[in-house]
Design brief:
Keywords: Electron transport, Iron, Iron-sulfur, Metal-binding, Transport. The chain contains 3 helices and 6 strands. By secondary structure, the protein is an alpha+beta fold. 13% of the residues are buried. It has a single domain, classed as 2-Layer Sandwich (Alpha-Beta Plaits).
């Protein structure tokens, strides 16, 4: 079964925790010249506003893949963990 990244949300559900499992220090992002997270996150959880010079992260649709953690060369995360038990993403491939 082949699946496109954009189609993964058709077979995905989330139990969203109020407490984010990923916490970003947006001040670190201001000095970043690459912003790899905005281009590599398959869930598009990161948004850079050039006008406001601000990074926004929304954990609600996070696929927990870890790509943002790997591509961030500025160590902008004050916390990156998987969600607490019972929360987070659930993939149903049937």
């Amino acid at each position: 079964m082949k699946i496109n990244v954009d189609e993964i949300f058709d077979v995905t559900s989330f139990n969203i925790d109020r407490e984010p499992h990923i916490v970003l220090d947006p001040q670190v992002c201001v000095g970043c010249d690459q912003r790899g997270c905005t281009n590599s996150c398959p869930a598009r959880c990161y948004t850079w506003s050039e006008e406001d010079q601000k990074m926004t992260f929304v954990h609600d649709g996070c696929l927990e893949c870890g790509t943002c953690y790997v591509v961030c060369h500025r160590n902008a995360f004050t916390r990156w963990t998987y969600p607490r038990g019972g929360f987070g993403v659930s993939f149903r491939m049937t």
